[in-house]
Amino acid sequence: MPKPNPNEGAPHAPEPTQADAEHGAIPETGLLGRAIDAFGIVFAIGIIASALILLNEVVLRYGFDRPTIWAHETTIFLCAMAFVYGGLYCVVRNSHIRVVLIYDLVTGRAKRILDAVISLICLFAAGFFAWAAYGMVIKAIFRPGGGIHFETSGSAWDPMFPALLKIFLFVVLCLMVAQFTIMAVTYLRAAFGKGAQQ
Fold it and tell me: Topology in the membrane (predicted)?
């Protein structure tokens, strides 16, 4: 008499959909993905802060004829930080743009293999851009002679926002490399691990 399959009839976890992205990081991103998703609120607050700063600038400039020298550069910096982080945020929520001509035709193991291949391609692309960003960071924080000097905007206020933004871009790209690695491993385990669904 054949042994009953313990997995037979057991409910399988549904594959992530666009609707899952609205509720946080997809399970394949692991602990890092959940942390990235939770930290997104900081940059959402930054967008609100930039709007309030611009509103304040309008009141000061046109109501009191006392414009600031820091408002515009600060709002640009806050929005740029949010846009850079937005790419990483979309990765963990599986809400990035993709061409689904082939992707939507496959299911089960084939789809998980395709997810792994996509993650590996993205991993190498993020790694390449991280390497390029590292070169920008070195130029932004070191003088040609080797002394430390953070690149500034060159304006009347002259903040070091350009250097900080380049450093942040490099960090985000490194996190993308780590996140795509986790996702690729998770998808491959799901495709070829014990009890993998065909």
Answer: Multi-pass membrane protein
